[in-house]
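Hey, can you fold this?
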Amino acid sequence: MNDRLTPLLWMVLSFLLGSIPWSVWLGRLFLQRDVRQYGDGNPGTTNVFRAGSKLLGLLVLLLDISKAAAPVGFAYHNLGIRGLTMVLIALMPVLGHAFSPFLAFKGGKAVASAFGVWIGLTIWKASLPAVVFALIGLGVFRVAGWAVMLALAGILVTLLLWLPEPLFLFVLLGETVILGWTHRADLRQPPRLRPAVKQFLQRSGHLRCDD
């Protein structure tokens, strides 16, 4: 295959794989429902759970992660692609999920696909901190978008301290822009704390009652 065509083909392949709306297709196949009629109306794992199937929701989560991890990991580790080309390949699955041509370019929030990218690039080195910070964020904030931002901040800290490779930093920047857009409704709201967290901070004197 022409060496000049290989990166372009991988960009296209990564975008197409990322754009596969597993939640919508499998929801129709196994639940006879459109998962976009639940929750926030987006095609994604959370709304599969809300549609009534934990098992299918878990399957969709794994598929959404894998559709990003597989092409990104192969391009990075097996083909040895680097530089701006690799940055673009890494962002394609996230863009594909967020703007899926299979759904008239109205995709989901792309969190699982963004996570899959880090598995593809670093296996567990950046993806594990992402999970830890995301869980912390979900436990602290009432709005999911701020939990996602905390997870991205956790990845940034990990990269700066452990994996300060410019390629990774540019991928993170691109993901932050995309996920900031897909979570824009959440991020318009202030980062509100969960009641239990707020009460704990008030009792410990770190938060005034009127905050």
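Oh, and this one too while you're at it.
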Amino acid sequence: MTPRPQQLAFDLHYRAALGREDFLVSPVNAVAVAALDAWHDWTQQAQAIAGPAGAGKSHLVEVWRGMSNAVRLPAEALAESAIGIATEVGAVAVEDIDRGIGDERVLFHLFNLAREGRVWLLVTTRALPGEIEIALPDLRSRLRAVALSRIEPPDEGLLRALLVKLMADRQLEISPKVIEYVVRRMERSADSARRFVADLDRQALAARRDVTIPLAREVLDAQEKARAGDP
């Protein structure tokens, strides 16, 4: 049989749904969602959200920005200018503090501004705040004391719903049978779901194939070999 020719697959940008109504709520993330919904009640006007990669922390930051008009800043690029920005806007989200903090003194200052009632502060992290390596003792103390909401790895129901949402974001049509097959075989994490859907989309486009169980199996097998370091 002559193999079907493949076409070039480009990484075209697609619009991920990031509204409050688009966030998939389940028992594994309900505490974090409730904390954001009640953000005016945060202790000392600060909150931390901790969860694994791909768990939806950035999505929740975007939701909170819609509520608070906050500015979002990557922790690794944190600089003195963030203090003026935060006080002017009144709310700031500092993302991924576990990946490095540009200036620890600035984050400490932001916590102090929050304690004084001058800004609202949200920080996100993959590690628990108290377990992050911090050189500044006062900042370590603030991070250990900040109110914390955790996002746990997805349960089966959330993983199934997440796959459906990610497929819809990319305008991929998929049957419930394919979803069930993937849920049973894939690694149980939101980050894995995102990688799987991205690879599936790329492969379906390159081979001009519909999304079927055989195609899903090929993508899962290729990802498993890549994780194992097989050629």
